[in-house]
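We include the pair:
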Amino acid sequence: MIDLQLDNRVILVTGGSSGVGLALVGDLLAAGARVATCARDVERLEVSIGELPNYDRERVLTLSADVREPDDVTTFVGAAVERFGRIDGLVNNAGQSLLKRFDETSWTEWQAEFELKFLPVLTAVAASRKHLADGGGGSIVNVNAVLARQPEARLAATSAARAGLLNLTRTLAEELGPEGTRVNSVLLGLIDTGQWRRRYEARDSDHDQSWEEWSANLASSRGITLGRLGSADEVSFVIMMLLSPRSSYTTGSSIDVAGGVGRHV
C-alpha cells in the first residue's frame, strides 16, 4: 500500500458537507490527517462529517462559513491554525454550475459566479499563504472543471469563471513556488453528486428511466469515453495525490478527472 505521507498533516477543505468535499474529508481522516472544513450550513456539515467511518473529534474542526464572505474565510483559516497550530494544505472546493447561456444570464448572476468560484480562492490563499510557508511550504489544490479549457455556451458564466481560476492557479504556482508552496488544479467532468441527482429527479420526460440509464445517456451525449459519470471518491484520490508530499515536484499542473471527455490535447 502506498503511503501518501499525510499522517498528522493539517488540511483545510472548503465545502465539506457533501460531494467531493465530504469524500475528501473522509479519505484524509483515513490517511491520518487532521482536517478543518467549513460550509454555510454547519449543522448539515457536522451531521455529514460525524457519519464518516473514520470520524475522530480530535482530528476534525467544523465551522460555519460562506466562502463568498472574506471575513468568514479569514476566520476559518485562523480557527484552523489556532486549533492545529499549522497548515499543510488547502483545498478550494467550489460550488455548483449555472446552466444558462450568455443572453439568459443576468448581471447579478455573472457577478455571483465569480464571487463563488474565483474570489474565494483569492481570500483563502491570502489568509493561509504565510502559514503554509512557515511550515516549509505546502500544497494548494483548486477544484475546477474541464469547462476551464473547453467552454460550453449553455454554461457561459460558469465557463468564464472556471477559465479565470485555471489562469489564476498557474499564476499562484509561480508566485508561491519560491516559498515552497505548490498550487495545482483538478478539472472535473460530470461527477455523480447531489446536483445531478436533483436534475434527474426534476426531469420533465423519460420518467421510466432508472438513474443508471439516465446517467449513461447523459454521459454518451457529453462524449464521455468511459460511458458513465465519475464518483466523488475518484476525484478525492487525485486531490489526495496532489496534497501528498510525495508530489513535491508537481506544481502549476492540471489533471482532468472527466472520464476521457475533452477537445484539447
Residues 36 and 61 are 4 Å apart (CA to CA). The longest helix spans residues 156-176. The chain has a mean pLDDT of 93. The beta strands are 10-14, 34-39, 60-64, 89-93, 139-145, 182-188, 254-257.
